[in-house]
């Protein structure tokens, strides 16, 4: 019987690596990406490229506007935090947190999984080198998994036991990158920058975490950057 997995795919390092893990485990990939009113559409292009490279059987893009809600520098005109140290990033939940984003994304992924008959939902959540987002924590993912099996026809009837798979949860960014390289993932297809210009900015939290990860992994980041601060 065909093993099917829905993969949340933003086009960034973590989600792309998680999808590569799913493929390596023998799953047929059903990728889902979200056009939710984020600052730029560059990551959507990256997600499409990664989905093609990983041989996803299907890739859908869900469109809705979270800018109407605001509350985040990714979905409003608030300034992005730039050039922050690791200590500064760890001190508080940053303005790039989008209220309830993973709950919304996972809900769409769950509906997709129930529709296509997938038991596994892969997400690139990470609580080691993460930005303080509460919806990337293990206890949150376990709670969502429990809800998924209570609140769906497939779960309630026992036809499917949904699993939220977060294979990167306890890995550092460097370990994630080394894993992806071992799996043959082309990180030149991915995109992490919050700013979304022609080149990655090299100053936002996401760029800084990515750059630190490649440096610690002993690998060259294939992306071009406008500015790279000395580390």
Account of the protein in words:
The chain is of the alpha/beta class and 231 residues long. The chain has one domain: HUPs (Rossmann fold, 3-Layer(aba) Sandwich). The chain is 37% helix and 11% strand. The chain has 8 helices and 5 strands; from the N terminus they run βαβαβααβααβαα. A 5-stranded parallel β-sheet has the order 3-2-1-4-5, sandwiched between helices. 39% of the residues are buried.
Comma- or semicolon-separated keywords:
231 residues, alpha/beta, Rossmann fold, five-stranded parallel β-sheet, 5 strands
In short:
By secondary structure, the protein is of the alpha/beta class.
Write the layout of secondary structure elements.
Elements: E1 4-8, H1 13-24, E2 28-35, H2 42-53, E3 58-63, H3 86-91, H4 101-116, E4 120-122, H5 138-150, H6 153-156, E5 163-165, H7 173-182, H8 205-217
Parallel strand pairs: 1-2, 1-4, 2-3, 4-5
Helix pairs in contact: 1-7, 7-8
């Amino acid at each position: 019987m065909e093993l099917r997995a829905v993969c949340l795919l933003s086009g960034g390092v973590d989600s792309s690596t998680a999808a590569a893990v799913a493929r390596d485990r023998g799953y047929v990939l059903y990728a889902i990406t979200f056009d939710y009113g984020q600052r730029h559409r560059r990551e959507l292009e990256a997600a499409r490229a990664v989905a093609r490279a990983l041989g996803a059987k299907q890739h859908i893009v869900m469109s809705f506007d979270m800018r109407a809600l605001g509350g985040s520098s990714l979905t409003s005109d608030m300034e992005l935090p730039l050039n922050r140290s690791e200590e500064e990033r760890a001190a508080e939940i940053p303005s790039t947190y989008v209220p309830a984003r993973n709950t919304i994304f996972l809900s769409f992924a769950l509906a997709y999984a129930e529709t296509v008959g997938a038991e596994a939902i892969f997400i690139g959540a990470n609580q080691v080198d993460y930005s303080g987002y509460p919806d990337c924590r293990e206890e949150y993912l376990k709670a969502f998994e429990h809800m998924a099996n209570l609140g769906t026809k497939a779960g309630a009837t026992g036809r499917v036991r949904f699993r939220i798979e977060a294979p990167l949860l306890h890995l550092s960014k460097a370990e994630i990158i080394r894993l992806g390289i071992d799996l043959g993932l082309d990180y030149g297809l991915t995109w992490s920058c919050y700013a979304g210009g022609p080149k990655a900015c090299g100053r936002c939290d996401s760029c800084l975490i990515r750059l630190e990860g490649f440096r610690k992994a002993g690998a060259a980041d294939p992306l071009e950057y406008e500015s790279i601060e000395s580390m």
